[in-house]
């Protein structure tokens, strides 16, 4: 049985990586999907490929640093599909050539990372809340990172922002659960997305794999499966939680 029949989902950063895999999974589960991305041309091509296969999908422009962009995307979802049931806050990232150790950070880069990774989540949720509250239901899934739990030698701002996303998840769940709105997060470890392949060298990826309990790295589809579960009725009694999906990288002591 399909898990998301006739649900309307807005997925940010949905034209590649985890967002794209999630959109593909959602439409197969019966959802109507808004593919919200800063690369509108790529998003439109992706949406067209889904529609060619008789799925319901539309592309909209989403600029994570523009707080008004979220409102326009939510309005478009309601206009096209008659509502908004699910938000997947997936957009995020940082430039590791700038996102260094604390002592070397250019703090002028702080705002950009926080706006893309954290403020965009807040503004997207704010845009959808009035509709969800009126209809007494809704589901929000925030894509965090294992970096939100663990320290690292670089990626300081990325990790701080993802820690913020994890606690934002708890606050949304606490404040809006009485309206039937659930909010959860997923914290991926190494996932072989285009962004990860572009940011991490082969040597760095191998270092991750040395600490995995499972003998393989994650794929975008692995995280899409977790998000689909959290967005479905199978998770109707789960809220305020963050599921770590890291291949077992963080489950053991260093002696292992």
Describe the structure.
By secondary structure, the protein is of the alpha/beta class. The protein has a single domain, classed as 3-Layer(aba) Sandwich (Rossmann fold). It contains 8 helices and 7 strands. It has helices at 17-28, 40-52, 67-81, 110-135, 156-176, 194-199, 202-211, 220-231, and strands spanning 8-12, 32-37, 56-61, 86-89, 138-143, 181-188, 242-245. The protein has a 7-stranded parallel β-sheet, with helices on both faces. Helix 4 (110-135) links the parallel strand 4 (86-89) and strand 5. Helix 1 crosses helix 8. It is globular. The model has no long low-confidence stretch (mean pLDDT 95).
CATH C-level name? Alpha Beta
- Report the helical percentage: 40-55%
Sheet with the most strands, sense and barrel status? 7 strands, parallel
Please state the structural category. Answer: alpha/beta
> Judging by the overall fold, what is the CATH architecture?
3-Layer(aba) Sandwich
Percent of residues in beta strands?
15-25%
**Distance separating the two termini:** 41 Å
- Quaternary organisation: single chain
What is the count of helical runs?
8
CATH topology: Rossmann fold
SSE topology:
Blueprint: E1 8-12, H1 17-28, E2 32-37, H2 40-52, E3 56-61, H3 67-81, E4 86-89, H4 110-135, E5 138-143, H5 156-176, E6 181-188, H6 194-199, H7 202-211, H8 220-231, E7 242-245
Parallel strand pairs: 1-2, 1-4, 2-3, 4-5, 5-6, 6-7
Helix pairs in contact: 1-8, 3-4, 4-5
Task: Summarize the model shown.
The chain has 256 residues and is an alpha/beta fold. Helices cover 45% and strands 15% of the residues.
């Amino acid at each position: 049985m399909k898990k998301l029949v006739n649900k309307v989902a807005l997925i940010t950063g949905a034209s590649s990586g985890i967002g794209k895999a999630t959109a593909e999974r959602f439409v197969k589960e019966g959802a109507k999907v808004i593919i919200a991305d800063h690369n509108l041309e790529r998003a439109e091509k992706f949406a067209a490929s889904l529609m060619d296969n008789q799925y319901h999908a539309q592309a909209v422009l989403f600029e994570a640093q523009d707080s008004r962009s979220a409102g326009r995307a939510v309005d478009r979802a309601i206009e096209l599909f008659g509502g908004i049931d699910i938000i997947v806050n997936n957009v995020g990232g940082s430039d590791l050539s700038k996102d260094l150790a604390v002592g070397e950070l250019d703090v002028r880069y702080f705002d950009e990372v926080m706006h893309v990774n954290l403020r965009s989540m807040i503004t997207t949720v704010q845009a959808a809340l009035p509709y969800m509250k009126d209809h007494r239901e809704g589901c929000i899934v925030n894509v965090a990172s294992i970096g939100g739990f663990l320290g690292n030698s670089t990626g300081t701002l990325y990790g701080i922002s993802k820690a913020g996303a994890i606690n934002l998840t708890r606050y949304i769940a606490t404040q809006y659960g009485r309206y039937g709105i659930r909010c959860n997060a997923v914290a991926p470890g190494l996932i072989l997305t285009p962004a990860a392949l572009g940011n991490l060298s082969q040597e760095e990826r191998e270092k991750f794999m040395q600490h995995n309990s499972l003998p393989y790295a994650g794929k975008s589809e692995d995280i899409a499966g977790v998000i689909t579960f959290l967005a479905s009725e199978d998770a109707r009694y789960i809220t305020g939680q963050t599921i770590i999906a890291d291949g077992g990288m963080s489950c053991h002591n260093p002696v292992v």
